[in-house]
Design goal:
200 residues; alpha+beta; Gyrase A, domain 2; four-stranded antiparallel sheet; 4 helices; 22% strand
Length: 200
């Protein structure tokens, strides 16, 4: 006599348990995956937020630096303008007595027999036009200018024969330069001037 055992329900039950186990594992894996994704998202969102805060801070600091740089540039421009004004004032102070020295030196260095018709000054450059009894007198004038403490660089532009009051003369055009005294010379002359005033 053969005994037959029906294993179908047992196999079906085992398959059912396997499917349930697989579903539970799949659900747990999915949940774990969602947790990991959420944690990574939160981590990177925090990093992005922190970086954005840093970027905003840097932008604010850069904006402040730009304002400071603009202010420094403005101050430099003002300093340059003040230095330029100071230079102009110093130049004017140094040049204010030049006309006096020019006229005084022309009188001192003018040789006998030379007469000036016009004197034109532009900055340190001076143009003379005049008459001389001879070319030698013009040469003497040029040597006197070279020896002068206030005049220099005589340059004869033109000399030609002319007539003044029925007398033959040499009409000449002459350029020269004014010397600008150094600060040491200016300081050296100031006490002497003060001493002269005290003596007077």
């Amino acid at each position: 006599m053969t005994i037959r055992i029906n294993l179908l329900p047992h196999r079906e039950e085992r398959r059912k348990r396997a499917r349930t186990h697989f579903a539970v594992l799949a659900g747990l894996t999915a949940a774990l995956g969602l947790v990991i994704v959420g944690a990574v998202h939160i981590f990177y969102a925090g990093q992005v937020s922190t970086q954005q805060d840093r970027n905003r801070f840097m932008k604010n600091e850069i904006s402040k630096l730009d304002k400071d740089i603009a202010e420094i540039k403005k101050l430099k421009e003002e300093i340059q303008a003040l230095l330029a004004r100071k230079q102009v004032i110093e130049t004017l102070q140094a040049d204010r007595s030049q006309t006096v020295h020019l006229l005084d030196e022309l009188v001192r260095q003018m040789p006998e027999g030379v007469y000036l018709k016009s004197v034109k000054q532009r900055g340190l450059q001076v143009a003379l036009t005049g008459y001389a009894q001879s070319n030698a007198r013009v040469s003497t004038l040029m040597r006197n200018i070279e020896a002068s403490p206030w005049l220099e660089k005589p340059e004869l532009i033109e000399i030609r024969a002319g007539t003044v009051d029925k007398r033959r003369v040499s009409e000449f055009n002459l350029n020269l330069s004014l010397k600008r005294p150094t600060q040491e010379e200016a300081k050296g002359k100031a006490p002497a001037k003060g001493a002269a005033e005290k003596k007077g």
